[in-house]
């Protein structure tokens, strides 16, 4: 379990980013962390891996205080950052130098992921494209078998076939011990992959619900023609039509439209959250 309790944090000479932030993430789930530019997603992820320390409050991962960065904790987490610098060495040399830090590292799995992403261990990291480097880090991260896998903008730079491979690989990699967190702007890339959505806005968690509850509570309509205004929680113009989010009164699970949902939350979180009013959640 990842538990952030009463986290407050500010970068030097900047205004407060997090103020009394609370969040609990459970094993067995893939979480989508969404938010506009500068909302605080990367900073939150860095707290989870001990690369930033809270000014007050605590962040624990499977009981370890992340700011202590104990080896026993670090071997059980892997972060694929949004930006990275990789040395001018072959994939094989990188693996040899880094796999030793992860007690459950699997070379067989790595080979399979590299084959899936059409990468060769003999390639030099410096000669790979940004997207290929990203795929290598995702493959390496998965092969660590760390219980906490955090991916910051993983689909950035991936072509369309690689994005669907990514979704397939991530879904297959999840087990009941793992917590996978994917932060992205490309909300459509998370469709049919994530179990839960957390939305950050100016350092505050403004939405935190499971996909199962969302599809039970909300319906995503591509035309709101004939829908009474009082039933509409959020509306926008889409290709000349009024599309939007309504309360799911019919009770039939609806397909979650991630883009509409994200837009609705950012524009009017209280209205969207109102549909979950009698559900109890621990943030
Ligand atoms: N090293 C830093 N020093 C000072 N301020 C920072 C630093 N890193 C981030 N910030 C500020 O903290 C806020 C949150 O940034 P963060 O990178 O966490 O957001 P984000 O949601 O990941 O953004 P993006 O989607 O654009 O990557 C922003 O206002 C940013 O300017």
TrEMBL record:
Q: Which Gene3D superfamilies match?
A: P-loop containing nucleotide triphosphate hydrolases
Q: Which residues form the ABC transporter domain?
A: 2-227
Q: Which GO terms describe its molecular function?
A: ATP binding; ATP hydrolysis activity
Instruction: List the SMART domains hit by this protein, alphabetically.
Output: AAA
Which keywords describe this protein according to UniProt? ATP-binding, Nucleotide-binding, Transport
Repressor: present as a keyword of the record?
A: no
Quote any Pfam family the record assigns: ABC_tran
Q: What is this protein called?
A: ABC transporter ATP-binding protein
Q: Which organism is it from?
A: Pontibacter actiniarum
Read off the lineage from the record. Bacteria, Pseudomonadati, Bacteroidota, Cytophagia, Cytophagales
């Amino acid at each position: 379990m990842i538990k952030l309790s009463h986290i407050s944090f500010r970068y030097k000479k900047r205004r407060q980013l997090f103020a009394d932030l609370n969040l609990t993430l459970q094993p067995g789930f893939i979480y989508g962390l969404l938010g506009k530019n500068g909302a605080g997603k990367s900073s939150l992820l860095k707290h989870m891996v001990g690369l930033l320390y809270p000014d007050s409050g605590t962040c624990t991962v499977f009981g370890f205080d992340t700011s202590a960065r104990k080896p026993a904790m670090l071997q059980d987490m892997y972060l694929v950052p949004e930006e990275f610098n990789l040395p001018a060495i072959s994939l094989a040399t990188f693996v040899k130098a880094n796999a030793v830090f992860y007690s459950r590292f699997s070379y067989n799995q790595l080979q399979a992921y590299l084959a899936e992403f059409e990468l060769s261990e003999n390639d030099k990291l410096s000669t790979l494209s940004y997207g290929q480097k990203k795929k290598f880090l995702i493959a390496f991260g998965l092969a660590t078998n760390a219980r906490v896998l955090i991916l910051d903008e993983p689909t950035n730079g991936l072509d369309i076939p690689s994005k669907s491979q990514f979704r397939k690989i991530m879904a297959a990699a999840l087990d009941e011990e793992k917590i996978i967190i994917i932060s992205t702007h490309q909300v459509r890339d998370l469709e049919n992959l994530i179990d839960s959505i957390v939305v950050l806005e100016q350092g505050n968690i403004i939405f935190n619900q499971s996909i199962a509850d969302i599809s039970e509570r909300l319906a995503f309509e591509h035309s709101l023609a004939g829908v009474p205004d009082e039933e509409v929680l959020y509306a926008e113009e889409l290709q000349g039509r009024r599309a939007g989010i309504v309360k799911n009164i019919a009770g039939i699970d609806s397909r979650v439209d991630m883009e509409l949902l994200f837009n609705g939350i950012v524009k009017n979180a209280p209205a969207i959250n109102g549909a979950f009013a009698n559900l109890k959640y621990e943030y």
